[in-house]
Amino acid sequence: xxxxxxxxxxxxxxxxxxxxxxxxxxxxxxxxxxxxxxxxxxxxxxxxxxxxxxxxxxxxxxxxxxxxxxxxxxxxxxxxxxxxxxxxxxxxxxxxxxxxxxxxxxxxxxxxxxxxxxxxxxxxxxxxxxxxxxxxxxxxxxxxxxxxxxxxxxxxxxxxxxxxxxxxxxxxxxxxxxxxxxxxxxxxxxxxxxxxxxxxxxxxxxxxxxxxxxxxxxxxxxxxxxxxxxxxxxxxxxxxxxxxxxxxxxx
Length: 251
Ligand code: NAD
Prior knowledge:
- By secondary structure, the protein is of the alpha/beta class.
- It has 9 helices and 7 strands; from the N terminus they run βαβαβαβαβααβαααβ.
- Helix content is about 45%, strand content about 15%.
- β2, α2 (about 40-55) and β3 form a beta-alpha-beta unit.
- InterPro entries: NAD(P)-bd_dom_sf (IPR036291), Sc_DH/Rdtase_CS (IPR020904), SDR (IPR050259), SDR_fam (IPR002347).
- This is 3-oxoacyl-[acyl-carrier protein] reductase.
């Protein structure tokens, strides 16, 4: 199927590489104009914007720290001014600060919560009234299967991702009557720059422990986002957290 998002506008945080890059290019392939932000990755952003343009769609992008609430609101306001009202918001930007609980400073906890949880709150608020007025919108949050599985040395990250599962469960109840469908994706391990930090052999070791025998690809997560963004595929998902994860966590 093609043209599933024809004429729509998608705003994606963290769209310059990894999972967000694949969402941007897939959504553009399906007919959407794309606004995305990133953090100090102008080269990646230019490459993604070029890919969107090559697909005949418009791109708008900016470096902004999603933990800077005013900056994030300004990006969304300017993106809508440039491309039109947001039909699909993907709150996807993310990072991790790792370390044993005993030694991780409060500042790291605050930072991880701000980048994932506060930014999801701020970005959803920024598009909410417009979506409600139009009676239609999709909000898709990138959580993580680690919300269910936990992990060593990543207490702030797991806390943030689990909070996002609760966030979509609560917000979706307010959104559905207004036509705004709010859901999350909880990916399993995927090869991106984020997981490249985990060192040589991570993908092989981790993949070997999964029923499917390999780690995931960003395009496989973007496909789940398209399902939630599209119609009729996404029409009956409300407050769900769907988890493409190679069988690592089954629920
Ligand atoms: P990545 O490092 O490849 O890309 C992250 C993107 O987010 C980049 O565009 C980066 O510029 C942007 N970004 C990071 N911090 C930002 C900030 N403060 N402000 C604005 N932009 C920022 O990472 P990825 O693996 O593609 O991760 C995307 C999302 O998927 C994240 O929320 C991550 O937690 C989640 N996730 C990843 C995996 C995985 O295995 N890779 C698994 C589960 C969930």
